[in-house]
Specification:
The protein has 395 residues and is an alpha+beta fold. It has 2 domains: 66 residues; 294 residues, YerB-like (YerB-like fold, 3-Layer(bba) Sandwich), CATH 3.50.90. 22% of the residues lie in helices and 27% in strands. The chain is built from 6 helices and 23 strands. The strands form 5 sheets. Strands 1, 2, 3, 4, 5, 9, 15, 18, 19, 20 and 22 form an 11-stranded mixed β-sheet that branches. Strands 10, 11, 12, 13, 14 and 23 form a 6-stranded antiparallel β-sheet that branches. It has a two-stranded antiparallel sheet with strand order 6-7. Helix 5 links the parallel strand 4 and strand 5. Helix 1 runs antiparallel to helix 3 and helix 4 packs parallel to helix 5. The longest helix has 30 residues. The relative contact order is 0.13.
């Protein structure tokens, strides 16, 4: 659209030409005799000037209107200070997402949770930053829920269940405060040998309660709360600052990654015949929804468990020598696995180290040994028996 300055210039020029033409025309229309001494020539010239002025006013008005309601001339370039984006808040070391400033540098909490049919649906299943699951005696699985911020632990979490030594060693790798209700002989040996800070429902029962509304035996009824765990940590004067060695267990990508292995809208993993998981991808939410034994795995409040990251880690599983209860021992030295995220997957490697250095963190790498960059978000880690690696299905 023409600018106001352009219109004004045109208006002046047009008015000047029109006034000149009108004066000449009227002058030609009268003879010298007719116009001499009569004043008509003067009147005609005056009229021409008024006409030109009127037209000029109209043009100026149009220019003003254009300036108010139409497009304006581009403003002159000016130099402005660059805008600095607001820095992201402190990152959760377990998810890479934002975390409360008060939780930065603090020890995580690991809670042992049962996964037998009588324990389902669990209370708080959708709340942990990380769920670690693996096989124990009888082919059943048990879970360990990790929270980087005690404020995220809900008002009811459980059913809490007994410790197993492999989970104790994994918790040590995060420098976590370990919450459980009882434990195997091997687990108690590890807790004592490694001087692990723990909150045990067998001896610290004031921080636990029971829900008998499900009409199941008492071992499936115990639970704790975020408030009780915080109180126990305070009452027991447990160390709350995380060790430097375990402060940043994972590497997170700065932008969402598409993994190099290919598309993965579903992954199936099998611990035993009665304990299988299928994680199905929802592209709209970018999350993998957990189906256990083909049924949605739901929280007690009806929420389906979902995570951004699925890790299937293969480990050699053997029976503990001398155990009459069939307790299992996982080889936590390391192995291979599969990482699934963002509708894609890649093959990976993992390592933890020997029991003699149980505080060594869990390390994840790509196949070449470079640190694995995880997408931000919650995570499920399954330690699946190596003998079942061939049963894993990616589609």
């Amino acid at each position: 659209m023409p600018t106001p300055i352009f219109l004004a210039r045109c208006g002046f020029y047009f008015a000047f030409l029109l006034g000149t033409w009108y004066n000449k025309k009227t002058a030609d229309g009268f003879s010298a005799e007719q116009s001499k001494g009569t004043g008509k020539e003067i009147m005609s010239k005056t009229f021409g000037i008024k006409l030109a002025a009127g037209l000029l006013s109209a043009v100026l008005a149009l220019s003003a209107f254009s300036a108010c309601g139409g497009e304006e001339e581009p403003p002159a370039e000016t130099t402005t200070a660059p805008v600095t984006e607001t820095a992201a808040g402190p990152a959760n070391p377990l998810t890479g997402e934002e975390i409360r400033a008060e939780a930065v540098g603090k020890r995580p909490v690991a809670v042992m949770v049962e996964n037998s049919p009588k324990a389902r649906p669990q209370w708080g299943l959708s709340t942990p930053d990380i769920v670690i699951e693996g096989v124990v005696e009888g082919g059943i699985t048990r879970m360990m829920w990790l929270y980087a911020d005690t404020a995220d632990i809900p008002s009811k979490v459980g059913p809490t269940r007994s410790a197993r030594h492999d989970y104790v060693e994994l918790a040590e790798g995060f420098d976590a405060i370990y919450v459980h209700f009882g434990g195997s002989t091997y687990a108690y040996d590890t807790l004592q040998k490694d001087k692990v800070d723990d909150i045990d429902g067998m001896y610290d029962g004031a921080y636990f309660a029971r829900d008998k509304s499900r009409n199941v035996s008492s071992e499936h009824t115990a639970y704790t709360t975020g408030e009780n765990i915080q109180k126990a940590i305070s009452d027991m004067k447990l160390r709350t600052d995380v060790s430097d060695k375990n402060a940043a267990p994972f590497t997170f990508a700065s932008e969402k990654r598409t993994l190099p292995g290919g598309t993965c809208t579903s992954i199936y993993a099998e611990f035993s015949g009665d304990y299988t998981h299928t994680f199905r991808y929802d592209a709209e939410t970018g999350m993998y929804y957990n189906y256990m034994n083909s049924s949605e795995m739901k929280d007690a409040d009806g929420t389906t468990m979902k995570v951004a990251n699925v890790l299937v880690l293969y480990t050699d599983v053997s029976g503990v020598s001398g155990s009459s209860s069939g307790h299992k021992d996982w080889n936590l030295q390391g192995g291979t696995g599969v990482y699934v995220s963002n509708g894609t997957y890649q093959n990976i490697k993992w390592s933890k180290g020997s029991p003699s250095d149980a505080t060594s963190p869990l390390k994840l790498t790509d196949e070449n040994g470079s640190p694995l960059e995880l997408n931000t978000g919650k995570m499920w880690i399954g330690f699946v028996p190596s003998e079942n690696s061939g049963l894993t299905k990616i589609s």
